[in-house]
Q: What sequence folds into this?
């Protein structure tokens, strides 16, 4: 079965994970620069100072996309490249880079899908309280509007932010990400301020570009009890509430789930909602950008050890089935677990979807024949695309699929140890080597259909 005629096929990346050039052309420090510079925060002491050197090699990367034959590319803008100190005016050299990138995409017939902020914040703002400080809402809106003015003559599809819930959990409740605060009481206020900033930016951008498409990107991790019993069922529901629904529900309903507010009050969290906030957050969206990777199997455990993805300290242990196939990140591979989510977006959230990320980290190596035989990645992508095909057949409105990721990249706290790319990066030479999955994906795109 072919995919719909206008289905967008593409790949996704984010600025911090591929650009490098962290001290060039006036870019200011981001919170991740400082976090990565502190020993112990990133595996093997890696930093994103060079990453995939995309800032200097973007033309080569655009050519890779042209070889893939994709119709869309999702990338993010670096806030500190455009607003080095966290406020205007635009840094002209940073602006020139994104100008060239967008022009290069359009020249190759590839639609740019811009994420305004992907999991970073200028250190200047982090130092003043980051997303716990309400002033950051205004700073983000100002940045989003400057970015929008820069590119809206050529870009129509926008996402404000990426994975607010997960990033905030890992940075505020645990110390896995910056600002490494380790205090659950800060999670909801920090999420809330990002959501208000998102809503205000959407409102302003839509006023300036009525025909634009505006969305938000989030990951959704289906949660399941790993053991029988009421307490374990409850643990799975709590994790769903804290991890998935903490952002999604309020975007659509204009109100936080009452159980979420009760949880916040129970752990001693302070009030954080001000008049007008909920109206701002629920600014209408044209689509939701869904990142799907894996389901989470969890049980109730008062010691709250958490797990590879689940934060510690919430009375939950991650307990994925031992026999389940996994990626190199230890994430369970379960494409079927995606289908109920897709249905939920149709039935409960009533939002068109773009699959903005999906892919797997595998231990890729260059074989003696000089190629990367990543058949496990091909299998992962094929299974997930088959589920998307089924969802489309059920009438679920999915506009496109963006494989994560075009290139191997800086995988946050895991540094360069996890490879998600369709293209292998030799970090010593920065040579790009399309993996077998690259060629397989190019065929799928060309046929506009899966192989069998
Ligand atoms: O690399 C990340 C990306 O930045 C956000 N979504 C999940 C990916 C894989 O961990």
A:
């Amino acid at each position: 079965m072919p995919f719909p005629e206008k289905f967008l096929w593409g790949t996704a990346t984010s600025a911090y994970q591929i650009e490098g050039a962290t001290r060039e052309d006036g870019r200011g420090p981001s919170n991740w620069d400082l976090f990565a510079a502190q020993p112990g925060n990133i595996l093997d002491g890696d930093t994103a100072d060079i990453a995939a050197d995309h800032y200097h090699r973007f033309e080569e990367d655009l050519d890779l996309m042209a070889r893939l034959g994709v119709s869309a590319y999702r990338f993010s803008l670096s806030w500190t490249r455009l607003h080095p100190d966290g406020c205007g005016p635009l840094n002209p050299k940073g602006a020139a880079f994104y100008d060239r990138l967008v022009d290069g995409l359009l020249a190759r017939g590839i639609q740019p899908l811009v994420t305004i902020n992907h999991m970073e914040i200028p250190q200047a703002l982090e130092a003043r309280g980051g997303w716990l400080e309400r002033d950051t809402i205004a700073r983000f809106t100002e940045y989003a509007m400057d970015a929008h003015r820069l590119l809206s003559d050529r870009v129509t599809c926008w996402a404000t932010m990426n994975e607010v819930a997960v990033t905030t959990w890992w940075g505020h409740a645990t110390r896995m990400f910056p600002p490494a605060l380790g205090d659950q009481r800060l999670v909801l206020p920090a999420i809330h301020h990002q959501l208000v900033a998102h809503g205000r930016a959407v409102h302003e951008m839509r006023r300036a570009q009525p025909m634009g498409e505006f969305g938000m990107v989030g990951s959704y991790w289906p949660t399941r009890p790993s053991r029988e019993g009421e307490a374990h069922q409850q643990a799975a529901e709590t994790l769903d509430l804290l991890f998935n629904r903490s952002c999604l529900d309020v975007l659509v309903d204009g109100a936080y789930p009452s159980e979420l507010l009760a949880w916040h009050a129970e752990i001693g969290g302070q009030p954080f909602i001000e008049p007008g906030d909920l109206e701002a957050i629920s600014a209408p969206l044209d689509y939701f950008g869904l990142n799907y990777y894996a389901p989470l199997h969890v049980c109730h455990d008062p010691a709250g050890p958490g797990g590879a993805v689940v934060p510690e300290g919430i009375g939950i242990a991650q307990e994925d089935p031992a026999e389940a196939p996994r990626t190199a990140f230890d994430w369970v591979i379960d494409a079927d677990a995606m289908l109920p989510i897709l249905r939920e977006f149709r039935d409960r959230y009533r939002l068109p979807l773009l699959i903005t990320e999906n892919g797997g980290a595998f231990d890729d190596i260059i074989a003696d024949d000089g190629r990367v035989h990543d058949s496990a990645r091909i299998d992962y992508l094929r299974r997930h695309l088959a589920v998307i095909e089924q969802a489309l057949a059920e009438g679920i409105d999915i506009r496109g699929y963006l494989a994560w990721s075009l290139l191997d990249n800086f995988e946050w706290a895991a540094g360069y140890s996890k490879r998600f790319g369709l293209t292998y990066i030799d970090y010593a030479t920065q040579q790009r080597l399309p993996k077998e999955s690259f060629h397989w994906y190019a065929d799928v795109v060309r046929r506009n259909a899966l192989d069998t």
